Amino acid sequence: MNPALYRLLLVAFAFQTLFICEVDFALAGPPVKLNGPLVAGGNVSEHVSIFSPDGSRVFYVADQDTLGVPELFSVPSGGGAPVKLNIPLASGVAADFLVNPDSPHVYYRDKKTIGSAGIFSVPIVGGPSVNLSGSLETLNTMGNPCDGYLSAPDQCTFFAESYPQGILLSPDGRLLIYATNNIYSVSTTGGIPTLVASGATRQAAITADGSRIVYQQYSGNGQQLHSVPIGGGLSVHLNIGSGVGGTTLSSDGSSIIYGAPLESGWAILSVPTAGGTSVQLNGPYVASGTNYYRDFQMQFSADGDRVVYRVDQDTLGRYELYSVPSSGGTPIKLNGPLKSGSVGPFFFPSFFALSPDGSRVLYTAAQDKVGVSDLYIVPIAGGTPLKLNAPLGVGGRVDRIVFTPDSKRVVYLVQHEAGAALELWSVPSTGGTPVRLNGPLVAGGNVAAGYTGSFGVSPDSSRYVYGADQEINDFNELYIVPTSGGAPVKLSEGLEVNYFNTEFSPDGGRVLFETVQKTGVPREIYSRVVREHWNAGDGIWDTAANWIYGELPDEVMQVTITGSANVTATGNPTARTVNELCLGGGAGSSTLTLATNAALTAINGVAIESNGILAGSGSIVGSVVNTGIISPGESPGTLIIDGDYTQHAAGQLQIELASAASFDKLVVAGDASLAGTLAVSLAGGFVPASDQTFDILDWGTLAGTFHTLLLPALSGQLTWNTSQLYVSGVLSVNSALPGDFDLDGDVDGRDFLAWQRNPAAGSLAIWQSNYPSASPGDFDVDGDVDGRNFLAWQRSPSIGNLADWQANYSTGSQLAGNVSVPEPSTLAIVALVVLPVICCRRHTLQHRFCLSV
C-alpha cells in the first residue's frame, strides 16, 4: 500500500494559490515560420494574416520581394513555400483582401485608389489573376465596421479597425461589392459589373441574408442611411434626423439601429432594412445628455429581439446600461446603482459584452466601492446583477472582458489594486470561483494590455491564448492555457510577439501569430500546432503519420482520441508529454494502451469520456478524471497514475485476476475519489481459493466508495470479503464457514450480533456448535459471563440454559471471585437498573438493541 512514487506537481490556479509544474518546456517543438525571406527592410503587414476557411492555408501581405511594395502571398498553414498571388502592381496590394468560404479563390485590389488597376480574383494556391472590375478611375474604400458609421455583426474587429474595406463579399460568395463614385456588384466568377446605387459612398455593409446593401451617402443634410437590393433596384431612405452615426445591423439583417440627432439630443432608433418607420429606443435624456454618437454604444442581442445600449440617460455624464425590445418599448436599466464613474471597461472598443447565446450582458462598474471597477453579469431583460470577480483592493479594476463561444465562461484582465500587475482570470458565467490563467509574472511584467478579443479563445471554448512579459520584462511572449485554469505553456519560444494578431484556425488545431518589428528585426508570421487528433484506426502513438497534422503530440498540444481507435504507446524510453489528453467521447471505443514501462505526462490532465478506455501497464503523470473505463494491465499488470484520480458515477475500473500472484492493480500516487463501478473478472480459467488476497488498489488519500461492485461468482462455499477494500485496497476470498453469518472468514461474537440483527442468516445452534470459545452461560460470546448474558437469554431463551449462566456468572470477568450470584427472583430488578446503561454502552455495536428489549 502507498509505494514511494515520485509525484509531479501540476500547476493549479485557484485564487492566489500556485503550485509549480516541474515540466521541461524546452521539449516543445518550435513554431514554424510561414513567410518567405524578406528583402532588407521588408516586413509582413501588421494585423492582416489570416487562415483559409478550412485552415489549410495562411494568407499574408508583405513587402517580401520589393521594399515598400506590399504583395499577397499564400502558404500552407504548416509551413512550406509561399506563393505570390497578385499580378505586378506598382503600388502593391491593399490589405483588405477577401477569401471566399465557398470557392477556392481570393479577391484583392490595387492599393492605388486613383487610376486603380482594379479588383482581381485568384486561386488560393496561386494561378492566373482575373480582373473582375476592369480599370477604375477611382476606387473608394467603404469605411470599416468599427468607425462608428456602419457595422455588421462579427465585422468589428481590431483588424477591420486598422484597414478600411474597399471590397465586400456577399454571404453566398457569389458577388463582390465595390464603390467608385457609385456602388457596383460583380460576379466572383467574372462578368460585367452591375450598377447597384448611384452616388458616392464610403460606408456600406451587406445584410446577413445577402439580399440588401445598406450604405451611407453624404448630402447637404449630413450622412444619410439608405438600403438597396444587392442586385440593384430602388434605393430606400431609412433614417430620420439630420445625419446618422453608430449604425449596426441585426444578426439576420432584417433591422438596423442607428444614432441620429433629434431635437431632444442624439437618439437611438431602429428601422427595417427594407424600409419603414423608425422607432426611438432610448428613454428621454437628462438635460444636456448624450449629444454625439461616439458617446454611446449599442448592440443587438443574438436573436435580434433586444437592443442593449450605454448612454448618460438619467444622470449627466454618467453612462449606464439599458436594454429595450428592438421593436420599441420601455428601456430597463441593467446595472445597479453606481458609487462612482460610468459603466464600461477602462478602454474602448467594447464597454459591455453580450453572451453569444444572447441571454446575458457583461459589464464593469464601481457598484460596491468608489473607484473600484468590478465585473458583473445580468440577464438581458433585466434582473439582479451578479458580481463575478474576487474582491479588489483600492483602485482595482476589471478590464477587457470576453465570453467564451459557448457562453459558459468569462475571461477578463484585472488589476487587483492600483499599481498592481494586469493579470488574466477566468470565471464561470453563472458565478463561482475565479481562477488565474497566466503564470507568475516577472517584476514589472503584465499580461498584454492590448485588445483582449474573442480571437484569444479557441473555437471549442476550451483554451485561451494570451501575450505577456511573463518571464522577461518588456519582452512579450505567447502562452496557451485551459480557460478553466491550469498550467500555461509557451507557444512562441524565443520570439517576441505582437499579441494583437493572434488567431486560431477554424478547427482550433493551429495558432497563427506575428512577431514584433524592431530595429534590425522584421515582423514575421508563425504557426504552431496546439491540438492534435488521432487519424488512424489501430496504430502506434509514436508514428507521426497517425496524427491529423502529421506531428507527434507535445506539451503544447491538446490531444484527442475519439471514434473507433486502438492506440498503443510502446515501452520505449522516449518521453511523451502532452498538454491535455481527451480520450473517448465519440462513437465507437477509443482505447489507449500504455505498454509496460510506457509513460505519458499530461500537464493539464487526462479526461476519459464515454467510450474511452485507458489500459495497460505504464504510467500517467498527471491527474485523471474517469467517466469511461480504466483497465489496468496487459492481462494482467499495474497501471500507475502519478497524480490524482477521480472516478465519476459513469466511470468504471476493470480488474482482472489471473492467479493469487498475478492480477491487475491501479496505483494512485495522489488523491483518489471513488464512485461508479468496480468490475472484477477472472482470466485464464483462474479459480480463486479460500484465504487468497488481491491488493488491487493503492492510493495516497481516499474519498468515496464505488457505487457498484461487480464480483465474479465463486465455487462451493467461498465468498468475497470486501471489508478491507477501502482500508487497504484488498479483496479476499473466504470460506463460508457454518455459523459465519457476517462472512468474514471466522466464527466469533460478531456473527452472533449479525444473527441478532437478522435471524434469517442461519441457525443459532450451528453458530453455537462452531464457536469453540463459548463458555457455558456466555450467551453473547464476549469472553465472560455477566449481566449482558442474562439480557441475551431474555431476548432469546432458546439460546441456552439459564442454569449454566447462574452457575458461571462472573466467569472471566474482572470482579472479585467472592461476588455473589444474584437469584433469579432479583434479576428483573437488576435488568431495570442496568438496562439503560447497557443500552447506551452497546449502542454502537447493536444498533437495534434499544428497540428490541
Q: How would you describe the overall organization of this protein?
A:
The protein is 7% helix and 37% strand. The protein is built from 8 helices and 70 strands. A hairpin with a 2-residue loop joins strand 32 (360-369) and strand 33. The chain is elongated and about 125 Å long. Mean pLDDT is 85; it is low at 1-28, 144-163 and 812-853.
- How far apart the termini lie comes to 44 Å
The biggest sheet amounts to: 9 strands, mixed
Roughly what fraction of the amino acids lie in strands? 35-45%
Overall residue-averaged pLDDT value: 85
Number of strands: 70
Work out the helicity level: under 10%
Unreliable stretches: 1-28, 144-163, 812-853
Inertia-based shape: elongated
Rg estimate, integer Å: 37 Å
**Would you tell me the structural class of the helices and strands?**
mainly beta
Query: How many helix segments?
Result: 8
Quick structural summary:
By secondary structure, this protein is mostly beta strands. The protein contains 8 helices and 70 strands.
